[in-house]
Design a protein that fits this description.
single chain, alpha/beta, Rossmann fold, 60s Ribosomal Protein L30, Chain: A, 19 helices, 22 strands
């Protein structure tokens, strides 16, 4: 696997990748847009920070790209939609720099309230002035936190430690989360009307761009203190400049900008304001955070190589982390069912149904459904399919994909059933886990019980004495060893279905001989790499 690193990433984080013999790592910093577009086609993955724009044009040139790894929280420099269309996984590091960003927020807030930058510059110049730098305390102030996610939640906790009354605004969190933080939830307008301090901690998207604009500034209390240590563009910079010039905004601190580095006249005027404390996007710039985010994305790339679930992929369905370990073995079961089922169906697919019965039905099974769909379509189409684009590919193929869940598992505590329909045929197979390993327990309407193996042979024939012997004789004559056999039937001398595990593939000429010996109405050699 070839990986290109286009922005500064710590050596400690990259060491995980450099130690893996499967990986070739190229660190190429400062590439022009043209140079990056010219070379990106040779790479399977790209590791970036905020300095590289991974847009549709770059993705068009990245003909072999599998993963975009953003060593940080924000992904506004990555066109996730375009990546998803191409089946490119986008991963980030949502936890690595949360503490760093939260601490920087408090550092800026305290610096603004106590005029630290101006007092520092004054004393450095040789002056001894105290009165101009009289500050304000946090104790007793009402602070509003917009966005109570990973960073916002930490900021709220720290504000409470300074004895602030903390309000929060976040339509996407549960009331219990706010209660646990000791924060009273309210709406944005009330936050603007009542708070002495306002700090934003949301992602930048169409919903949050300009979230604090002229209308919100008009509601704010005179003398409000504002902070943006999230993403440039959430806090309207023209409105902030007007607020500082009018005096409605007493103090402000900004770490992030709509244009980085700032060069417009508006931003130059804003940065020059005396009552504004500024830093050049340093929220994630601690030694610990830089190591953490680099290690996190490196581990995600290794997980992909090892075919393990990705925990921080922004365009993949994901499990609740609390049940991820418990559900992980089902990915292998789903891959086996998909490989098995597709080889039983003669003709194209029209409809795919995933059914989950028993305790598993109480969980979100959509990642398993997408994993199964990926395994099916990757073998049924000539385009690369993965969990990112499987749904899009199925939709474009006109496939009907259905998911069913029931807490009734019958004889099994957990049961996964795959039904494939197409060309007038229907194939049904069910599986479960025995001690963590996949088992097939149903084929069509036959109860079976066998562990899938890489090479298998499935026959359906009219049951009569000597049939098993005939099968063994033909295979033995061709030096094909039978590892085990499982027989399913509904009645004596009726239709029987037998599945055999064999130590080597069964050639076509042997299948012809088996057909003649058994008069089988269905005969299929199976190859199950996932087993």
């Amino acid at each position: 696997m070839k990986i290109i690193v286009t922005d500064e990433v710590t050596d400690e984080g990259l060491a995980l990748l450099q130690a893996d013999p499967r990986i070739t790592l190229d660190v190429r910093l400062g590439l022009s847009r043209e140079a990056l577009h010219a070379c990106i086609g040779a790479y399977d993955a790209i590791i970036t920070r905020s300095g590289t724009t991974v847009d549709r044009a770059l993705l068009d040139a990245a003909t072999n790209l599998k993963i975009v790894a953003r060593a940080g929280v924000g992904i506004d420099n990555v066109d996730v939609e375009a990546a998803s269309e191409r089946g490119v996984i986008v991963v980030n590091a949502p936890f690595g720099n949360t503490n760093s960003a939260a601490e920087h927020t408090l550092a800026l807030l305290l610096s603004a309230c106590r005029h630290v930058p101006a007092a520092h510059a004054s004393l450095k110049s040789g002056a001894w002035k105290r009165a101009p730098f009289t500050g304000v305390e946090l104790k007793g102030k009402t602070a509003g936190v917009i966005g109570l996610g990973k960073v916002g939640g930490r900021v709220a906790t720290r504000l409470k430690a300074f004895e602030c009354d903390v309000l929060g605004c976040d339509p996407y969190i549960a009331a219990k989360r706010a209660t646990d933080l000791g924060v009273r939830l309210t709406d944005l307008d009330e936050l603007c009307r009542t708070c002495d301090i306002l700090t934003v901690h949301t992602p930048l998207n169409e919903e949050t761009r300009g979230l604090l604009g002229p209308a919100q500034f008009a509601l704010m209390k005179p003398g409000v203190i504002l902070l943006n240590v999230a993403r440039g563009g959430i806090l309207d910079e023209a409105a902030l400049l007007a607020g500082l010039e009018s005096g409605r905004v007493a103090l402000a601190a900004v770490d992030v900008w709509s244009e980085e580095p700032p060069s417009s006249d508006l931003l130059r005027r804003l940065i020059a304001q005396d009552r504004l404390v500024v830093t050049p996007h340093l929220g994630a710039n601690t030694q610990e955070a830089q190591v953490n985010v680099a290690v996190d994305v490196s581990r995600e790339i290794l997980n992909w190589l090892d075919r393990l679930p990705l925990e921080n992929a922004v365009n993949l369905p994901r499990f609740d982390p609390a049940v991820l370990d418990q559900m992980r073995p089902y990915f292998k079961l789903m891959a086996v069912l998909a490989e098995f089922g597709l080889q039983l169906l003669k003709g194209g697919l029209d409809r795919i149904t995933f059914a989950y019965n028993g305790a598993i039905a109480h969980h979100d099974c959509s990642p398993l459904t997408v994993a199964g769909l990926t395994a099916l379509l990757d073998r049924a189409t000539d385009q690369p399919v993965n969990m990112v684009n499987a749904g899009l590919v199925a939709e474009r193929m006109g496939l009907v994909v259905e998911e069913r869940k029931s807490s009734q598992g019958g004889a099994f505590s957990n049961l996964v059933t795959l039904t494939l329909e197409g060309g007038g045929q229907t194939r049904v197979l069910s599986g479960t886990l025995f001690e963590g390993s996949p088992r097939i327990v149903r084929l069509r309407d036959y109860a079976m019980d066998f562990a899938p193996e890489p090479h298998m042979l499935l026959l359906s024939y009219l049951d009569r004495p000597g049939m098993i012997g005939r099968i063994g004789t033909v295979l033995g004559r061709h030096d094909i060893n039978i590892a085990f056999m499982n027989l399913g039937r509904r009645e004596k001398k009726g239709e029987a279905m037998v599945i055999l595990s064999v130590d080597s593939p069964v050639p076509t000429e042997v299948l012809v001989e088996l057909q003649q010996a058994t008069e089988a109405d269905f005969l299929q050699a199976l190859h199950l790499p996932s087993a």
